[in-house]
Amino acid sequence: MKDKKNIKAEIEKIREELHRHNYHYYEKNESLISDVEYDNLLKKLEKLEAENPEYRTESSPTLVVGGGVKDTKFTKVTHKKPMLSLSNTYNLKDLEDFDGRVKRILNGSRAGDENTQVDYALELKLDGIAVSIHYEDGRLIQAVTRGDGKVGEDVTENIMQIRSIPKYLKESVSVEVRGEIVLPLAEFESLNKKRLESGEEVFANPRNAAGGTLRQKDAAIVGQRNLDAYVYYLADSEELGFETHIESIKYLEGLGFKTTKVYDLCETIEDLETRIKYWENERNNLDYETDGLVIKVNNLSLYEELGATTKAPRWAISYKFPAKQVTTKLKDVTWQVGRTGKVTPVAELEAVEVSGSMVRRASLHNYDEVIRKDIKIGDTVFIEKAAEIIPQVIKPVKELRDGTEEEIIPPTNCPVCNSILEKEEGLVNLKCMNPHCRAKLQGKMEYFISRDAMNIIGGSKIVEKFIELGFLKEISDFYELHLKKDELEKLDNLGSKSIEKLLISIEESKKLDYSKTLYALGIPFVGKFLGGLLSKESKNIENLAKMEVEELLAIDGVGGKVAQSVYGYFRDEDNMRVLEKLKDAGVNFEIEEVDEGSHLEEFVGKTFLATGKLIHFKRQEIKDIVEKLGGTNMSGVSKKLDYLIVGEKPGSKLKKAEELGSVKILTEEEFLELTK
Ligand SMILES: NC(=O)c1ccc[n+]([C@@H]2O[C@H](COP(=O)([O-])OP(=O)(O)OC[C@H]3O[C@@H](n4cnc5c(N)ncnc54)[C@H](O)[C@@H]3O)[C@@H](O)[C@H]2O)c1
Ligand SMILES: [Zn+2]
């Protein structure tokens, strides 16, 4: 008995929690927990309700479409056909179950026909706000949000502000069309930047921003935000005589609607799996956010038989991608000193999995941002890890504070060398001014050997050790390491093999292009682009060192800050001393004269790009060959591209080139032939 009581209490507690999250998510367009955490709670409740049917209620979040219209500022409108949610899954096994369920229902109603063929349409699941838009004789008359699925809010005026939604259709038909209102990623970023600058709270993600915008009372604001709309459902498709979902979508395109253009026909579960794998990566190249894929039965005549629960149709399911955003606890903030002495806060987090990897630390950028986002130690925070990007702290969840959170206090002294820090430009940057600070030294060394600079093997561990042992005091010391070979080989955990490799890569680095060696010096503000530009303009470092500020300013692309920085660099005795050492060691600081005699007819005036995993060449080698033979390298596929060299698993670039039709595709062997 006691047990039962506990179960009842637990069920009620989870329901209450879910109601609270629904309120924040649908009414206020903000989240207190991540979607995965929400979905896990919902699944837990579903399980408890299934095991204890006596506690089921019609109003449970497991049975109703989220979002209400109770206190709405908009006029309420009853939907002709309910606007349902979608059941969701995060794995392929559940997808197979879905396919099995669909076939079982269809087989059940057609005894004897055991092998019903079911085709699926696979679409992108846009992460935005659902709307239903009504047209009468081709004219937009009303647009309604999903609301609680039965009753939504009239947002016609706001929808009128969205350029990609046609106000008049290309045919004079009366239809109801459903789609998703999204905020494109670029718009989202610029909106948040503006809000941060004006002290307003940032939106945690594009969906929240789209929701907040669409339910604005002031249509003019909606107009400024550049929302976009993609449609994915024609409510009257059967009445209009369409047989498949995909046909109806193509018809919508013909009427003037924007769709994602993704409606892959999949005949088997294997087809579905292949497309899912493809989109797991490819979705990062879209300019709007997707949180998964939607898989729909393509044959419309099966919809009635399959039916729907109170919450979702049985002819569709969503396959959700691993979450990019999750919440976790901010345990502490540490301060990191970079190569220029800039001191930045780093979030120390309770370990959490995001996009398939464990995250323990995340960037907080600078103290100003900590203040603007109002982040405190002990806060629950949203963090995000997009493809291959360092995890970022998005915002704190202030609603979850219990009063024990602590202010983040910036240090007064350098956490590494203890010298007093100085403030630059107000509060934005704290800086260690000690020229001998170990952290700065280490940062400088790591920058010097990084891939885009001198490309010397050996990571931060080796640099740290060599600094500690006194082998590295300035960047030119790398070129004296060979003199200490015997000593180095005796060090623990290194061994002669890796020392040998290290010394070879140091030797190799001497031959690098002047643009790279210039970049490697770490002159403030001189990144890869300016390294290239300044090397071309000056031809060699002696010329560059002699340039006056006015001469530097005369170079197209060089501004005041850069000119001052470059000029100052070469007027510093220490810098010049290290530079002389590098030159004496044989590091290249001049542009090689291009020998026009080596140009090949097949290459002159032609453009090249390599993609995929290359077997015979390094990517840089291909670029060097192209340049040497008189061709030009490109970074993306466009009409201007003449040759695409493809390795293994080429991906989207090859697809694009094939679509263009004008690009010649070469294997590595064919490329090699061309150079002969
Ligand atoms: N973090 C939170 O606090 C919180 C709270 C509530 C809900 N949520 C999240 O929202 C989900 C529930 O929201 P929901 O009911 O809007 O469901 P959903 O967003 O998971 O799926 C249904 C919706 O998908 C949209 N959609 C996008 N592309 C589509 C396409 N091609 N075809 C059909 N529909 C498409 C439609 O708007 C549809 O209403 C939960 O599973 C959870 O992940 C999170
Ligand atoms: Zn310091």
Automatic annotation (TrEMBL):
It comes from the Bacteria. Its EC number is 6.5.1.2. GO terms for molecular function: DNA ligase (NAD+) activity. SMART domains: HhH1, LIGANc. Pfam families: BRCT, DNA_ligase_aden, DNA_ligase_ZBD, HHH_2, OB_DNA_ligase. It is an enzyme of class 6 (ligase). NAD(+) binds at residues 35-39, 85-86, 123, 146, 180, 296, 320. Residues 598-676 form the BRCT domain. CDD domains: BRCT_DNA_ligase_like, LIGANc. Keywords: Coiled coil, DNA damage, DNA repair, DNA replication, Ligase, Magnesium, Manganese, Metal-binding, NAD, Zinc. Residues 4-58 form a coiled coil. Zn(2+) binds at residues 414, 417, 432, 437. The active site is at residue 125. Its cofactor is Mg(2+); Mn(2+). It catalyses: NAD(+) + (deoxyribonucleotide)n-3'-hydroxyl + 5'-phospho-(deoxyribonucleotide)m = (deoxyribonucleotide)n+m + AMP + beta-nicotinamide D-nucleotide. NCBIfam families: dnlj, PRK07956.1. Belongs to the NAD-dependent DNA ligase family. LigA subfamily. PANTHER family: CHROMOSOME TRANSMISSION FIDELITY FACTOR 18, DNA LIGASE. DNA ligase that catalyzes the formation of phosphodiester linkages between 5'-phosphoryl and 3'-hydroxyl groups in double-stranded DNA using NAD as a coenzyme and as the energy source for the reaction. It is essential for DNA replication and repair of damaged DNA. This is DNA ligase. It comes from Psychrilyobacter piezotolerans. The lineage of its organism: Bacteria, Fusobacteriati, Fusobacteriota, Fusobacteriia, Fusobacteriales.
